Inverse folding.
């Protein structure tokens, strides 16, 4: 009787993982709404002048009366709270408003640009994960050896180089010498195709991957070393199994679990990293829209972009935890 | 074994991707890398409002060479405006038989509706300020439009460089909601084929009245970073781009590329605040103008691409330019002036009655050119015992301080008439009637006001030129600002464009510029070889 397990292995974990994601996302909605309020507030106290952004170089030559009339017409004198409530009210109905800077509906702007940013982020993340696993395995095979030291060294170097510097170096080396495209998504003057996207994605995704690499690889390396000291590995060694087989069968599965959480928690950085990389490579994602909307206090666009990235981070974390629940039998509740 | 397979699967798309290759560029295209794509293509929201619209044409257009002030010649208008005796009513006959790219006919109703939309406060048009002197506009008949001004102003013709949109597509309400922002319809040589976050593609208008232009497509591709743009151009495939002076200069010795420099009336200089005891002193103002070595600033900060600015009028203004109205670089006389007016050297610093010869120069935070100019200027002044502290300031910070702190300013955004270039900078009714940055040093002189009035209202070109030469003569005797340089704009293009095309040259450029300007400003006039 005492052997009865309350939650035996095999109790459907998938529905529970689904519930977890659902619960987290329900919580994320009020949090995101609150976050947009903070964005409206910060944008209203920021030293950026929305009318100056709207008028460009004409601002200097616009008289006080005319400025006042334009401010009133554009609703720039409204309180941030009123503007936020108005935005929230229409956002609930799926209406995200019109971007003042880009002179078009926010939904259109997002629909056009977000896929590009997502593609870049996913490719960068995927490449980073692959590189991290390869490097950490190399390090794990020979702790303290050449491969291990090289891995640590690479991670530290990658951490030390700012992504935009790396991007410019990559363009100088790979584009000018080896003929890879310098930027954009298609050869000059042509429509993007799947092939052109893949070629043009290569350099920006690699730069993204390298900037994400240090955290991932060092975490993975540390948890691999923990597992290498574990009884299971000792037992496997006792059975006479080879180092490679131990690494793949005993160490990697265990080490990858905390890795999932690390990936989830790096999503925010992934988004900001993408913005820098996009700018240098002329990648047509949301980067330029984010920067323009921030410096011009373009509330509608800024709030929509913030809400999207916040939801992405929440979702990423929820998925990471749900993945834990699915993969690690020791985890009963998250 | 499993994970090895998976790893290989993950690497596969990346390996495949590297196998792609770049296709050749069709030769009827011109491909330009641009720092920023236009936010809107709507002429009523200010797109291409300097008479060079490729999509939406204006009543008048610019005609001239790079080294001179262009003439404003009729485009959609049939001839010169008929101006009433009191100078207030401008009647303009329009060319018959012109149609928009959507097939609808162009008439006076379209002109009136376009101008009315900009005037309408509800549209919040950013270029409403250009029409501050316009009272009403109406279509007299199908081919005549009449503008009524608030005050006589010969240079109102520069307001007739705004693109015209079809009346039926002009909706009430804010310009940011207009369909013309993304899908403009005009009478010009090009139409919009595509605009997204990466590209703006203009295609030749097959129904253009003088036949479709030879350059079949003009593609503008966004690349915000200066270095990335320069490397992309060097990497091949693109026709050209706009670059800051130093990066442009790096192409000067490179085979296959040419650097094109376009002159402008785009000046930089500092205000000399009227409430500061040092900078308000007329002898100090004159001394500062003699003290500063403008050419050294141009060589050092602008990498040589600029011309010294002494007054607001550059040599490109032809007969209106007074070649005697310059300040010699004469530090000795400047120091003499400072000594005579009591600003004497005490150690390494000048002072007068306990007041140091020190002031602050504010510059627009984020504008690195203005920052570098301010710092280089401050370094020059320091050698003569004058301390200038350079600080960044936003518009909101700078405006309340404009009476006591100097500000690094830029001008020349309405350069196509001497009147619009300098009236607001020197007439005593400013800054009260205008913006903080109009006449910031508060120049006030009755003789100057009279001359500016003649320039603004006289319909006799000779009398205007004479008045403006006199304006400069008066100004250099008693300068109110410290103007430093007219900046030139730098473009780089592949030299082999000349093998394919007969190009059409540059124009004198306004403050705002980019790949819509430079050697590509008249791209509709390029012809194939």
């Amino acid at each position: 009787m005492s052997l009865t397990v309350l939650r035996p292995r095999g109790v459907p974990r998938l529905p529970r993982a689904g519930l977890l994601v659902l619960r987290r996302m329900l919580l994320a909605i009020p949090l995101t709404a609150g976050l947009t309020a903070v964005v409206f507030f910060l944008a209203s106290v920021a030293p950026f002048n929305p009318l100056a952004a709207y008028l460009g170089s004409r601002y200097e030559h616009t008289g006080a009366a005319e400025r006042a009339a334009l401010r009133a017409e554009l609703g720039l004198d409204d309180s941030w709270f009123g503007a936020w409530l108005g935005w929230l009210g229409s956002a609930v109905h799926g209406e995200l408003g019109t971007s003042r800077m880009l002179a078009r509906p926010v939904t259109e702007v997002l629909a056009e640009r977000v896929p590009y940013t997502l593609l870049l982020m996913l490719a960068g993340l995927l490449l980073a994960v692959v590189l991290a696993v390869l490097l950490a395995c190399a390090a794990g095979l020979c702790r303290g050896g050449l491969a291990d030291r090289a891995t640590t060294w690479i991670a530290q170097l990658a951490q030390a180089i700012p992504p935009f510097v790396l991007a410019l170096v990559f363009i100088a080396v790979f584009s000018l010498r080896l003929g890879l495209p310098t930027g954009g998504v298609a050869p000059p003057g042509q429509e993007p195709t799947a092939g052109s996207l893949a070629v043009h994605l290569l350099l920006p995704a690699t730069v993204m991957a390298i900037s994400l690499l240090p955290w991932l690889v060092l975490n993975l390396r540390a948890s691999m070393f923990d597992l290498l000291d574990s009884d299971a590995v000792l037992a496997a060694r006792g059975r006479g199994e080879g180092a490679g087989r131990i690494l793949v069968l005993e160490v990697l599965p265990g080490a990858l679990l905390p890795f999932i959480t690390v990936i989830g928690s790096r999503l925010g950085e992934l988004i900001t990293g993408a913005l820098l990389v996009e700018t240098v490579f002329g990648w047509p994602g949301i980067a330029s829209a984010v920067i323009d909307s921030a410096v011009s206090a373009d509330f509608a666009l800024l709030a929509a972009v913030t809400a999207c990235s916040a939801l992405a981070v929440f979702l990423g974390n929820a998925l990471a935890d749900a993945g834990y629940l699915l993969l690690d039998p020791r985890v009963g509740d998250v | 074994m499993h994970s090895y397979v998976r790893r290989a699967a993950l690497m596969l798309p990346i390996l495949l991707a590297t196998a792609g290759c770049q296709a050749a560029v069709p030769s009827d295209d011109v491909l330009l890398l641009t720092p920023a794509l236009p936010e809107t293509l709507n002429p009523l929201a200010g797109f291409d409002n300097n008479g060079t619209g490729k999509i939406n044409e204006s009543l008048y257009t610019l005609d001239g060479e790079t080294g001179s002030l262009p003439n404003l010649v009729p485009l959609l208008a049939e001839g010169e405006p008929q101006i009433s005796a009191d100078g207030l009513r401008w009647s303009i006959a329009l060319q018959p038989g012109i149609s928009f790219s959507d097939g609808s006919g162009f008439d006076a109703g379209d002109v009136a509706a376009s101008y009315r939309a900009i005037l309408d406060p509800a549209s919040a048009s950013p270029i409403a300020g250009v029409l501050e002197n316009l009272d009403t506009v109406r279509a007299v008949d199908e081919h005549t439009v009449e503008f009524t001004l608030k005050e006589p102003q010969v240079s109102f013709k520069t307001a007739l460089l705004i693109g015209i949109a079809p009346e039926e597509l002009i909706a009430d309400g804010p310009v940011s909601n207009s369909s013309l922002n993304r899908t403009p319809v005009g009478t010009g040589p090009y139409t919009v084929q595509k605009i997204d976050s990466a590209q703006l593609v203009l295609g030749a208008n097959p129904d253009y009245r003088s036949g479709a232009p030879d350059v079949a497509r003009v593609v503008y591709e966004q690349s915000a970073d200066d270095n990335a743009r320069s490397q992309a151009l060097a990497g091949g495939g693109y026709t050209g781009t706009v670059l800051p002076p130093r990066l442009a200069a790096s192409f000067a010795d490179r085979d296959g590329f040419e650097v094109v420099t376009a002159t402008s009336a785009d000046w930089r200089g500092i205000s000399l605040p009227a409430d500061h005891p040092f900078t308000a002193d007329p002898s100090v103002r004159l001394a500062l103008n003699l003290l500063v070595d403008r050419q050294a600033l141009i060589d050092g900060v602008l990498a040589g691409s600029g011309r010294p600015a002494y007054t607001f009028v550059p040599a490109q203004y032809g007969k209106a330019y007074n070649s005697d109205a310059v300040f010699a670089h004469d530090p000795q006389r400047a120091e003499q002036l400072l000594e005579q007016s009591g600003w004497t050297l005490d150690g390494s610093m000048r002072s007068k009655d306990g007041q140091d010869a020190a002031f602050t120069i504010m510059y627009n935070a984020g504008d690195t050119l203005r920052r570098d100019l301010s710092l280089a200027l401050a370094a020059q002044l320091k050698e003569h015992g004058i301390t200038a502290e350079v600080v960044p300031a936003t518009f909101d910070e700078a405006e309340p301080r404009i009476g006591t702190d100097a500000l690094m300013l830029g001008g020349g955004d309405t350069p196509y008439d001497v009147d619009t270039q300098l009236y607001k900078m020197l007439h005593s009714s400013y800054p009260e009637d205008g913006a903080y940055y109009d006449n910031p040093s508060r120049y006030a002189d009755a003789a100057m006001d009279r001359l500016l009035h003649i320039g603004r209202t006289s319909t006799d070109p000779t009398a205007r030129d004479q008045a403006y030469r006199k304006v400069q003569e008066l100004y250099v005797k008693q300068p109110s600002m410290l103007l430093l340089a007219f900046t030139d704009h730098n473009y780089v293009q592949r030299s082999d464009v000349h093998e394919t095309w007969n190009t059409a040259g540059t124009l004198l450029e306004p403050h705002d510029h980019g790949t819509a300007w430079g050697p590509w400003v008249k791209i509709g006039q390029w012809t194939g070889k």
